Amino acid sequence: ASVRPPPASPRASWPSAEAAVARRQLAPQAAGCPNGFTAAGGGCFAATAGAVSAARVAAIECAALHPGATLARLDGPVEEAAAASLCSGTASGAPGLGCWIGASDRTCSSEPAVAVTGPPIENGLITGATIRQCCDACASAPDCALFDLSEAGQCTLLSHGKTTPAPKAHRAGSVGGGSWGWDDGAPMGVSNWNTPPDRKWNGRAITGPACAVIVQPGSAVAAA
User: Are β-strands 120-126 and 98-100 bridged in parallel, bridged antiparallel, or unpaired?
Assistant: First the structure.
């Protein structure tokens, strides 16, 4: 977890083999970092005490550490090193395990004149949405893989669906498997990759959640 000045409130997730440690980011504090946080670069960072197996749980655990805390965004080598150090000292800091931070490849792609139909996910109907809002809503919903936006701004989020031609102003798209980035939309500027985020392992495509490791396994940060 980290603390940095607004509007930087990124989430960060480091997945692991079966468990992970959550981190968070906080709102800025006039008197420095809150208790339990370590200052590094432009933010304050901390790790949760227990192992966490899912990104959604990691985000909740991080938020409970301090008001305004989120999963961490790492801006540069200083923050990367601080995150790796915190991760290596946690309950899940064993070889092959890592810590959740706020990065993923759940970015969006969309195209015009296409519609996707099917049953919406729970709370998967949004009115008056832009394509950016529709995309962001899908990217933040773990069960969403596809989204559809009508000319009137009706956004539908789906886990699966059928693609059909539509008027030019109608758009549809998908999330996941795109370029990697921080959850707040900032590009990833990681400088010390151990395993680059190319959605491959030993040359073979990853079909499930992907993991990218910086620094070194066992004391590293992985993004999924």
Answer: unpaired
